[in-house]
Design a protein that fits this description.
There is one protein chain. This protein is an all-alpha fold. It has 20 helices and 2 strands. It is globular and about 60 Å long. It starts with a helix and ends in a 7-residue tail after the last helix.
């Protein structure tokens, strides 16, 4: 495989991700979170198997697109599902599970690549992904549908049964209010189900009656601010440079640490996972916005240090800055973006807004994957590219501080944005 073919096969995965992100939000709104997640497993199984058995570059690229569709769809619907079943006071903690599982997958892939990077063993590495997809497919037949989505379809008795099953023996009488939006306290079932088993909706209409599509949500006066916020945060997640480390740390560091660059890549994956787990409670304690700002600031500072370490050949500084860069990402920009859509809009818009968020994320991922090597070469392959990431970090820090509201402790999107609750 030539370098050009490798670049195409690598980047085409993001095209599949974009397709999956744009299509899965509306599907999960109209057909359910659970069905959508089950459909993604079809792509998780067939994509890796096609790639692992590929007799040609074309077939491998097709497998990558199929895998990308599954990943793009899952990253839209899974955070929504988690947010809708998580206890209100722990939404940030549970929301971090998306990033934790992503990091677990990355670490598994890096370990397999480290030990099986010879001969045709790459086929085994790709086949393992298909096996994981099969396990996920089986597991999804043992979990319930989102109670919030069930209420939106008028299936209130089943929603209460599911919520009781999820919470166990806990008193769940009204933990969520205002059309299923989570609040603190003891108001979930009462407001989720409404009086006499009807969905609690001020307009007496189920959310499914006015569920918004990806175009409608942009035009809606209550939701365009949320779209700008989630898109900006998703762009920050990628354009602050994390994938320059995850995807290209070997090529970046091998010029100054040629013998241990691959090992450092595995260490980066392990640190990303450990740090994400360790920091996961912080967004519930400090707030989503605080964690985002601390994360962006940390990445910006360490991008400068990493660029300087590479530029001046300071090995220790380069390694430490790389690890702190990844740890800073795990503090906020890793987990928090996946939880924001569910907290910035109501249930009628969350699917469409999450689709916009992940679509922007996949586009930014493509830009970094495709153009980071080009930009790095243009700047002399001496670390200066990280000064660009630091500059982008400063821009995103200012924008998040100005535009993105805090959502911790807010009972619904109206309170987050300071709107009057409309009664008609």
């Amino acid at each position: 495989m030539t370098s050009a073919q490798f670049s195409v096969v690598n980047a085409i995965y993001t095209l599949g991700g974009l397709i999956g992100a744009l299509s899965s939000g509306p599907l999960s709104t109209h057909r359910g979170r659970l069905l959508t997640m089950r459909i993604t497993t079809i792509f998780f199984i067939t994509g890796p198997l096609l790639s692992s058995l590929a007799p040609s570059i074309t077939v491998m690229a097709l497998g990558r697109v199929i895998s990308g569709i599954g990943a793009g769809a899952a990253l839209v619907v899974v955070p929504i599902y988690i947010a809708e079943v998580a206890p209100p006071k722990s939404k940030g903690l549970f929301g971090a599970l998306t990033q934790i599982t992503v990091n677990t997958g990355i670490l598994i892939a890096q370990l397999l690549g480290y030990f099986l990077s010879y001969g045709n063993m790459w086929r085994i590495v790709l086949a393992v992904a298909g096996m994981i997809g099969l396990v996920q497919c089986v597991g999804l037949f043992f979990i319930p549908e989102s109670p919030q989505w069930l209420v939106s379809k008028g299936r209130t008795k089943l929603a209460k049964t599911v919520l009781t099953r999820i919470r166990g023996d806990k008193n769940i009488e009204s933990e969520v209010e205002n059309d299923g939006t989570a609040s603190e306290g003891e108001e979930e079932t009462e407001a989720l189900l409404g009086e006499e088993g009807n969905p609690a909706n001020p307009s007496n209409k189920k959310p499914s009656d006015f569920a918004l599509g990806i175009i409608d949500v942009v035009r809606h006066p209550d939701h365009y601010k949320a779209i700008i916020a989630v898109v900006a945060v998703m762009l920050a997640q990628q354009l602050c440079g994390i994938n320059s480390i995850v995807m290209y740390s070997v090529s970046t560091l091998k010029t100054i640490i040629p013998t241990t660059a691959r090992l450092i890549t595995v260490a980066v994956g392990a640190l990303n996972l450990i740090a994400t787990i360790a920091f996961s409670p912080l967004s519930d304690r400090l707030g989503r916005k605080v964690c985002l700002l601390m994360s962006i600031a940390g990445m910006g500072i360490n991008a400068v240090l990493l660029g300087g370490g590479i530029l001046y050949g300071v090995k220790a500084l380069s390694v430490i800055a790389t690890l702190l860069f990844v740890a800073s990402f795990a503090l906020g920009l890793g987990p928090v973006p996946f939880t924001l859509a569910n907290e910035l809009v109501g249930p009628e818009a969350v699917g469409a807004v999450q689709s916009w968020a992940l679509a922007s994320n996949w586009i930014a991922t493509f830009l970094v994957a495709q153009f980071f090597p080009i930009l790095d070469t243009a700047l002399g392959e001496n670390g200066k590219v990280y000064f660009v990431f630091a500059g982008l970090g400063a821009v995103f820090f200012a924008f998040v501080a100005w535009w993105v509201p805090e959502t911790r402790g807010k009972k619904d999107a109206d309170e987050v944005w300071g709107r009057e609750r409309r009664e008609d």
